[in-house]
Amino acid sequence: MTVKRSSAAGVCWTLLMGCVFAAHAVTFEVMDGNSTCIKADLNASFSITYNTTNAEGNGSSCGGAGVPPELLVSFGAGHALTLLFSRDGRLYRVANISLQYNLSDTSTFPQSSSTGLMTVMTNATEISARLNSTYRCVSSSTVSLSAEVNLTFSDVRMEAYMSGANLSTDESVCSADQTVTTAAPTQSPRTTAAPSPVPPPAPERGNYTLTNRNGTACLLALMGLQLNITHRSKSLNQMVSEVVNLQPNRTTASGSCGFTVATLVLTEDLTNLTFTFTLNSTTQKYYLSAVNVSAFWPDMTERFVEGNGSLNFLQCSVGRSYMCSAEQTLSIVPSFSINTFRLQLQPFNVTASRFSAGTDRRS
């Protein structure tokens, strides 16, 4: 596997009150023999908060045999940015972003009270594009990797699962660029709550499945989802509660399965929803431990990003599926809640690609 860097990279580190910023402008090409599988032209900057007292692409891979394509950019003294890709029959996406940084690098982290390598990551990204098209996003977009680390992309042109050596002329433009440079895409009707809002009809039930590297189902979810977000309306210039049904035929599922942590990422047009499930090995019960949402609906004045990593919803014994046919509301934060309909899920110990037995927890 070879990685070509086709333009020079600029690296700049600036120290400011315990924060370090790194900026990179570079083009990378990941090749398997003579075939190009990933090409990326991007700027990336990092801000890392810490306590005080030159870019290379080696390690990238085109994947195969159940292993996802990977773009790994190493820079400085032990620092590295990694992008993992996934795809379905329609889209490819950045499924995971991780950053490794070296607090022992005193030129970058002067007077740091900690040393050694630190790694932070997230699978809550909004980078996705149609297969055989180039993802383009000139606007700056920030991804939070942890409470201390933020990553900002800009001027991005990138394509994975390439069929040729050059970036496709067909482009998938990010939503931030669409609001500035192009006409807004046609959206399905959305309901803006009035003083006496009429709720939308019950959402269609979606069937979402994750598979492991062997192609075996490892997470199963059947559910209708309705999102309730309070935001400032562009048209009304006031705070409104907008209720939107997630549409399964326009939603793609991705994520990961682990022994004690599993994630399900649902992406529909301008909405990205991430569920994190945790298995307590002591009690042998699993539960929904975190939910993150990012949305930029047409009537929003700015992108809505919220999450809660201290949840304890949908508890169930391992080896069984959680079921609730009645409507239930999951209050994530004061400005965001999820209504679930006809829910059945199993994020751990799936056998034969089927749900295990479960008891319907009607409310």
UniProtKB/TrEMBL annotation:
Membrane topology classification: Single-pass type I membrane protein
Database matches in PROSITE patterns: LAMP_3 (PS51407), PROKAR_LIPOPROTEIN (PS51257)
Biased composition (Polar residues): 176-187
Ranges of residues in domain Lysosome-associated membrane glycoprotein 2-like luminal: 27-161, 203-351
Keywords annotated in UniProt: Cell membrane, Disulfide bond, Endosome, Glycoprotein, Lysosome, Membrane, Signal, Transmembrane, Transmembrane helix
Superkingdom: Eukaryota
GO biological processes: establishment of protein localization to organelle
GO cellular component terms, semicolon-separated: late endosome membrane; lysosomal membrane; plasma membrane
Signal peptide range: 1-25
Family indicated by similarity: Belongs to the LAMP family.
Record-given protein name: Lysosome-associated membrane glycoprotein 1-like
Protein species of origin: Sinocyclocheilus rhinocerous
Originating gene: LOC107751063
